[in-house]
From TrEMBL:
Highest taxon, organism lineage: Eukaryota
Gene3D superfamilies: Leucine-rich Repeat Variant
Segments of this protein annotated with the region Disordered: 1-58
The protein's name: Interferon-related developmental regulator 1
Key word Calcium present: no
Length: 434
């Protein structure tokens, strides 16, 4: 049978004239191709950017056409192609609200994700778990999301508890399990079951001997961190009687994790402790912790840590976090943070809210601001009310031109340079006094 004469149809000639396979979408090309169609939706003000008007309907149709192609490619024989398709769908789901598009294809997407989680290797499985999180974020806390979780929940629990699976795969599934359960479940039994699954993982990081001075990090430490953070997220939606039980069970054990070699484990344990103290004081205004003096000594040491054998970046990050944790435990204080998105502002004024915000920011990335503006589920979680509807004229009056931004940045740069120059010129010599 004669060979096809079409160039680039299935093969492309490589070095030495030998044919080689070409994947339909590489990791980089797939993400870039999707983002080129999605980035314009990440900020509503982008529609009023200086330049020619964009045909929104045509752009939306073009985006949906590409997304249909990516969904089909999640069933491809090539693992690399499947993974690239999953990553491209993740980029799209994190940067635009696609509720109606997903609603029509939720069963197909769920089946594809389940297949990739069951059959895929570590990297593909991680991409599929990440897509499952975004799928539930898009769908919100409705019946459809519950159906998705009923399908994926048992598969995720099985992998999380499977000691033979890769640590990265188990870590991704633990995070996915916590987030999806947080979003969709109204069944208290399912909530407790999921928390017990996560508890069985991170409690392995507790030292067996209570007199042990330190906890050594292991390859499974990243899994323990993810399981602890996912469990903490679910604790924020538990009934108060269950919260009391969990506090009694874990509050005296968690401080042992503060001595772990891994900085991320120390930080995760510290933030969890701050959240537990916050919840404990909400349930009981006269809450008393017996080992408060010993705990505050540990926290103060971490907030002022100057060990030379630790990386400067790790020490800086650790000191910043534990200053806040120490204030929370000692003074019942929380440093309020302000999150700006479009014309709105959100104040993070407690550890529960911070934990929830950090979790969703981790999975949505740069799309977090857009979802805070437009995603009904997230707005409900953070009590922001219905989305603020602004017409194009209002958006245009709020957005400054490129030229005005340039003038402002130039003036700020000059002022900063002058201020720094004065400091450099007038540095005082520091002498030794005896």
């Amino acid at each position: 049978m004669p060979k096809s004469k079409k160039r680039g149809s299935n093969h492309q000639r490589g070095a030495g004239g030998q044919p080689r396979n070409v994947q339909p979408f590489s990791d980089e090309d797939a993400s870039i191709e999707t983002m080129s169609h999605c980035s314009g939706f990440s900020d509503p003000a982008s529609f009023t950017e200086d330049g020619p008007e964009v045909d929104e309907e045509a752009t939306q149709e073009d985006l949906e056409y590409k997304l249909k192609g990516f969904i089909d490619l999640t069933l491809d024989k090539s693992a690399k192609t499947r993974q690239a398709a999953l990553e491209s769908l993740k980029s799209a789901f994190s940067s635009k609200i696609l509720y109606e598009f997903i609603m029509e294809r939720r069963m197909t997407l769920t089946d594809s994700i389940e297949r990739c989680i069951k059959k895929g290797k570590s990297e593909e499985l991680c991409a599929a778990a990440g897509l499952a999180c975004l799928l539930c974020v898009q769908m919100g806390s409705g019946i459809e999301s519950e159906e998705i979780f009923k399908t994926l929940g048992p598969v995720l629990k099985k992998i999380v508890s499977d000691g033979t699976a890769s640590v990265q795969a188990r870590q991704a599934c633990a995070t996915c399990l916590g987030i999806c359960c947080f979003i969709v479940t109204d069944d208290i039994t399912e909530l407790y079951s999921t928390m017990e699954c996560l508890e069985s993982i991170f409690t392995k990081a507790y030292p067996r001997d209570r007199d042990t001075n330190g906890v050594s990090s292991t390859p499974s430490t990243v899994l323990h961190i993810s399981a602890l953070l996912a469990w903490t997220l679910l604790l924020t939606i538990c009934p108060m009687n269950e919260v009391k039980k969990k506090i009694e069970m874990h509050l005296h054990k968690l401080p042992s994790m503060l001595s772990c070699d891994d900085v991320n484990m120390r930080i995760a344990a510290g933030e969890t402790l701050a959240l537990l103290f916050e919840l404990a004081r909400e349930t009981d205004a006269d809450f008393f912790y017996e080992d408060m003096e010993l705990l505050t000594e540990k926290l103060r040491a971490l907030a002022t840590d100057g060990n030379k054998h630790r990386a400067k970046v790790d020490k800086r990050k650790q000191r910043s976090v534990f200053r806040d944790v120490l204030r929370a435990v000692e003074e019942r204080d929380f440093p309020t943070e302000t999150v700006k998105f479009g014309p709105e502002r959100m104040y993070i004024d407690c550890w529960v809210k911070k934990q929830t915000y950090d979790t969703f920011k981790e999975i949505l990335g740069s799309g977090m601001q857009y979802h805070l503006q437009s995603n009904d589920f997230l707005r409900n979680v953070f009590e922001l009310g219905p989305p603020v509807m602004l017409d194009a004229a209002t958006l245009k009056t709020m957005k400054i031109s490129r030229f005005e931004r340039h003038l402002y940045n130039s003036a700020a740069f000059k002022a900063r340079t002058k201020a720094r120059s004065k400091c450099r010129d007038k540095r005082a010599d520091v002498g030794e006094f005896f």
